[in-house]
Amino acid sequence: MSRATLSTPLPGVVGARTAKPLEQAFGMRTVGDLLLHFPRRYSRRGELTPLSGLPVGEQISVVAQVLDVRQRQMQRRNGKLLEARITDGTGTLTLTFFNQEWRARELLPGKRGLFAGKVSEYRGALQLQHPVYELFDNRDDAPGAEQLDEAAAKAWAETPVPIYPATAQLPTWTIGSAVGLALDALGEVIDPLPTELRESEGVLALGLAFERIHRPQHDADWRGARDSFRFREAFELQLSLLDRRRRAGLEPSTPRQPRLEGGALARFDAALPFALTGDQSRAGATIAAELAAPHPMHRLLQGEVGSGKTLVALRAMLQVADADGQSALLAPTEVLASQHYRSIVEALGPELCAELNPVLLTGRMPVAERKRVLLALVSGAAHIAVGTHALLSEGVTFLDLGLIVVDEQHRFGVEQREALRQKGSQPHVLAMTATPIPRTVALTAFGDLEVTTIRELPPGRQGIETFTVPEIEMPNRAARVWARAGEDVAAGRQIYVVCPAIAPGETEDDWESEQEAEGAAERGIANVEQTIAELRAKPELQGAVVAGLHGGMPSDEKDRTMRGFASGDIDVLVATTVIEVGVNVPNASIMIVCDADRFGISQLHQLRGRVGRGEHAGLCLLMTRAEAGSLARERIEAIAATSDGFALAEVDLELRREGDILGTAQSGGRSTLRLLRVAEHGPLIAHARELAREMLERDPELESAPELAAIVAREHEAGVLDNLAKS
């Protein structure tokens, strides 16, 4: 019988009855898929799992000892209830079984085993209803037990027991049994990593690593194997990212040479009423050189709130226009697209606008206006297009699309960005984000992009003070918020008030806002509809014009509201996070965020950046009912402690779960990292990147490592890199 390989289908190794639920639950199809399902932790037969603090409603697996078993007649239905208590030596957990008296013969006091099920609560006590379990062999009862020496007994008790990510239908020991069958059937494993690399980095051979991570004899076995797999993951990911960057750089693209005299860019620069910051100048020079190259640019421009990224992007668009090309700026919301369009028109002035004919395209435009815009794009009359997802639709055609600018690029799916790129012949791509990205995330999620950072703020920007307002602990401070708002309105300034929801039980659509809907329908969560009514009734704001803005409004109404606020006709704008990025009203002085604990660090930092953009200093007030010491409160207090977005990005990385940082599933590809954690393993990621770079410099096509080349090809094909980038 031939030995199995990592690509052998599972049914022939573990049987169809086991293979089918493995595929349904975890997408496993091959032996390799199963062996890459690593244990999430390890227990020991002689070491009991702490039972205190088990999460209600979640599936758990614990090692425990049977304390006692009792049966009683059920009062409201026929039959008997068997209750077994298990213990970790201090706390207890009750197992309940209906009409299964035979289990009393198995669950004998003193027996130890693995118990798995969904935690529930009954009369204040934790329990597992109809759990599954696997009892350990009791070495004292085994034949010849008296012959066992002390060392053997100790080894039995201390051998690590893998605990796998499991489901109710597939408990950890079922997965462990399937893994054992796969390991027994596996032949020699071809290792994709070159021998010299493994030896220099202390990485275990792949076959040995699989054996030690799944069947360790000592803790050192699984720890060494885990470290080896973690290195492999970092190295293979960085190799794939750098290979994609290399291949993209080989594609031909139309050079967009800057026109030194008389061009749109030169005239625009001459008319600027201020000097560019040093960071803007350096970023602009880098982008200008790449636009002039015969290969497409792939660059991520990140910067602080208000650092002038859009100006840098506009100058790049003008360079492309000087070379007779077109540029498209893709924004995630209609509000932001309209804001960008108005800002560009204002910045260009009448003469350049008439020459370049910038157009706005959104999904809710009148038919006649849409036709006019489409004709301007296909004929080349419009050199700059600003739009939402509408730019991606099939009917939109460009004469010569030379540059794509994607604002808040993480808000777009891979297919959407690719759809716009396909409208040109290898156009240059400039992705922008106002959410500072920690270096390890940039290396991982955006490792195929060159990164340019703008930290410097334009001169004359006023500072922003930020305060936490705990409504329950400090009701007087909460009341003072609205008095201060009234004072600023009376002084001729304007106020933003941001809520997590539109109306009771109604949240923003995903395409309009990053804010998740979780919990927003609960009673008491601030919403736009009710907040408008409350503010209009407040004595402090009598006479103030209060209006609302959210993603569910018709386009013309949203635009009318934003214009009214920008012109000063509206004093207080109550909004959802549609105003999170890009909105620029210099007269706005206060940002009040209701239920601020419902937002993430980056969102709060973006919201804060909407004020302090003119001659008046900004004030950001974060209202919350979150308890002191909670994670939600910690986020808010981190925002209040610093205005440095890059420092906040690192705090955010530490506070967030890994799945929030990397991994929104798309296209059926693997979207999350298995063992690599960007918050913890930054030095490893950077080291792996350097090793990958050296390998590609020596052997660009990976001819000396064909198995690695195959892995890289599969990663590209499966869209793994794209999945990481949408986070």
Task: Give a short overview.
The protein has 727 residues and is of the alpha/beta class.
Describe how the helices and strands are arranged.
Layout: H1 11-14, H2 16-26, H3 31-35, E1 41-44, E2 59-73, E3 80-87, E4 92-98, E5 112-122, E6 125-129, E7 132-135, H4 150-158, E8 160-163, H5 172-185, H6 195-201, H7 206-214, H8 219-250, H9 264-271, H10 278-291, E9 298-303, H11 309-322, E10 326-330, H12 334-356, E11 359-361, H13 367-379, E12 384-387, E13 401-407, H14 414-421, E14 428-433, H15 439-445, E15 450-454, E16 464-470, H16 475-490, E17 494-498, H17 528-537, E18 546-549, H18 555-567, E19 572-575, E20 588-593, H19 601-608, E21 618-624, H20 631-641, H21 645-655, H22 658-661, H23 682-698, H24 706-718, H25 720-725
Parallel strand pairs: 4-6, 9-14, 9-15, 10-12, 10-13, 11-12, 13-14, 16-21, 17-19, 17-20, 18-19, 20-21
Antiparallel strand pairs: 1-8, 2-3, 2-5, 3-4, 5-6, 5-7
